[in-house]
Design goal:
With 76 residues, the chain is an all-alpha fold. The protein has helices spanning 12-22, 28-75.
């Protein structure tokens, strides 16, 4: 999937069409299963990336708040 990753996205129907261009899958059920797996995989990957970004932002905020508290203690 790495070679053709850019061809797939979060839309199941588009992933089925991209799969048709890449591979010959004669079984409709198998094609749907593969396209569904790819769709779920990409959605999960996007969600994990969002969670990592949110966690990084929380850590940045925590560091900033700690620095502000430390500066206030120094000033007092």
């Amino acid at each position: 999937m790495t070679l053709h990753k850019s061809r797939f996205g979060t839309d199941f129907v588009q992933n089925k069409k991209a799969l048709d261009d890449i591979a010959i899958v004669r079984s409709k059920g198998l094609k749907n299963e593969i396209a569904g797996y790819i769709t779920t995989f990409i959605k999960r990957e996007i969600e994990e990336q969002k969670e990592k970004e949110a966690q990084a932002m929380q850590e940045t905020q925590s560091v900033n708040e700690t620095e502000e508290l430390h500066e206030e203690e120094i000033l007092n």
